[in-house]
Amino acid sequence: MAAISKIATGNGHGENSAYFDGWKAYEANPFHPVDRPDGVIQMGLAENQLCFDFIEKWLMEHPEASLCTAEGVNKFKEAALFQDYHGLPEFRQSKIRSEWIVMSGGATGAHEILAFCLADPGEAFLVPTPYYPEFDRDLKWRTGVELVPVVCESANDFKITIDALEAAYEKAQESKLQVKGLLITNPSNPLGTFMDKDTLKNIISFINKNNVHLIGDDIYTATVFTEPEFVSISEIIEQVECNRDLIHIVYSLSKDMGFPGFRIGIVYSYNNAVMNCARKMSSFGLVSSQTQHLIASMLSDDNFVDEFIDEMKQRLLKRHKYFTWRLEQIGIGSLKSNAGLFIWMDLCKLLKEKTFEAEMELWRVIIDDVKLSLSRRMDDFSMSPSILSPQSPLVRART
Ligand SMILES: Cc1ncc(COP(=O)(O)O)c(C=O)c1O
């Protein structure tokens, strides 16, 4: 057989890693209350399914938003012929569009575009732990960039400290890795917490001092369901001195609206050169004009958006309260959180011993016997067992 590329034959995608084992177990035997009562329940996926009744009602009331209805068909030809990576004019005019925005295939596409624009192969981004495991695929696989963990400890609720940032920066330098940026997810997947103003200010001062970029993944912004109020990086840079060329935001409608299948992502950057390149790269993963048309109509309906977000927050809060209360009743603690689609559970006392091997064994029992697919801490980043804190390991599950 003729040889094919290293990327095609290698395991950079990570599909053969333990992270995907839970997914595979679920796919092989998905739970169904009648047909497969002994099937696996998928709780390791961050899906927001709480408000589809709201969306479906809006769709019924707005047939003109779809191009495949009598009311919408007059826009069909225009949309079918549309090919411009700046996006449909009505999408540009809706809430999430301005000239500083480039569209991408979900946040996944946005992250890869930024990795390509900001770093060369072999250069690195710092990422606070624990982090969304697929960053290893999204940022590294095709770009050749590296991720260096900023080790955050459960002992102080995984707060990102200047010391932790400096330590990771030094470690990267010792490994001869050129650090090009810091990637933060706020609110955090998998913790369900968000950063306070001081932490964000520290982060801004760190990136300015070291002249490295900041990628802010904001895709869980609307899922904050209780006080205090969420503050985003774009608000903080209005308040402190900052070189805005270093700031880049990733957003998508996969979590806040619950539309991962529509692949609606954006890069929002203050840096002209980055935007210029990102715009050219976006042609590899554009959002279909049909989807743009539908979403632009939906997001232009201010009443709907406000009601949807209010209702979603209430339903998330209710689910979160119930879930953590039931966990407490059976003696399982969880990290205090007020955002996202996760619960960070402490299953420490179920371990035979505090090692990664024991954690893996427990996780296997949870999949094979309890039939729950959860994400494990150990998958979330590369760390040595020696830094396991007494709280570890913690496992997250979808609410
Ligand atoms: C923090 C984070 N970033 C990015 C993504 C990918 O999102 P998308 O479906 O928009 O590509 C996810 C999905 O779970 C996520 O949790």
Automatic annotation (TrEMBL):
BP GO terms, sorted: ethylene biosynthetic process
Gene3D superfamilies named in the record: Aspartate Aminotransferase, domain 1, Type I PLP-dependent aspartate aminotransferase-like (Major domain)
Database matches in Pfam families: Aminotran_1_2 (PF00155)
Entry annotated with the keyword Lyase: yes
Keyword vocabulary terms for this entry: Ethylene biosynthesis, Lyase, Pyridoxal phosphate, S-adenosyl-L-methionine
InterPro entries: Aminotransferase_I/II_large (IPR004839), Ethylene_sulfur-biosynth (IPR050478), NHTrfase_class1_PyrdxlP-BS (IPR004838), PyrdxlP-dep_Trfase (IPR015424), PyrdxlP-dep_Trfase_major (IPR015421), PyrdxlP-dep_Trfase_small (IPR015422)
A GO term for molecular function: transaminase activity
Record keyword S-adenosyl-L-methionine present: yes
Catalytic activity annotation: S-adenosyl-L-methionine = 1-aminocyclopropane-1-carboxylate + S-methyl-5'-thioadenosine + H(+)
Residues spanning the membrane: none
Domain named Aminotransferase class I/classII large: residues: 41-373
Names of the cofactor(s): pyridoxal 5'-phosphate
Functional pathway: Alkene biosynthesis; ethylene biosynthesis via S-adenosyl-L-methionine; ethylene from S-adenosyl-L-methionine: step 1/2
E.C. code: 4.4.1.14
Family (UniProt): Belongs to the class-I pyridoxal-phosphate-dependent aminotransferase family.
UniProt name for this protein: 1-aminocyclopropane-1-carboxylate synthase
Lineage: Eukaryota, Viridiplantae, Streptophyta, Embryophyta, Tracheophyta
